[in-house]
Amino acid sequence: MNWRALTAPAARTLYPVHRLHGAVLLLLLLSTLVLGMGNSLHSRLLWVGEQTWPNYYLLNPDATEPTCQLEMDVDAEVRKRVEAYKPDPDDLFSSPPNPEAIRTSLERNLELCRQEHAAYKQNLRHATPALGVFKSVEQGLADFLLENIGLTKYLFIAMFALAAAVAALDADHIALRLPRNRAEWRLSQAVQFAVNGLMVASLNAYLGRLAGSPGSESTSQLQYAWAAVFGLFMVINAVRFVNVPERMKAGSLALSSGLVLPLHSVMGLIAMSYFFLVDGYASGLAIYFGMMSNLSSMFINIGLYVLVGMVLKQTRLPELLLDVIKPWNLPSPMLASVIIFATAFPTAFTGASGIFILAVGGVVYDELRRAGAGRQLSLATTAMSGSLGVVLNPSLLVVVVAALNKEVTTTEMYGWGFWVFIMSATLFSLVVCKTEGNWKPRPAPGAFRASVLQMKPLLPYVLVTAGVILAIWGVLGLRFNEYSAPLILPLVMLALVFLDANRDSRGDDETRLKALWNRSSAAASDSAVHIGALLALIGFSISLGGILERSDVVHALFPESLTSPWIAMLVIVVMLTVIGMVMDPFGAVILVSATIAQPAIQLGIDPLHFWIVCLVAFELGYLSPPVALNHLLTRQVVGETEVLAAERTGSFWHRYERLLLPLAVMGPTLLVAAFVPLLFYAL
Question: pTM for this one?
Answer without folding.
Answer: 0.80
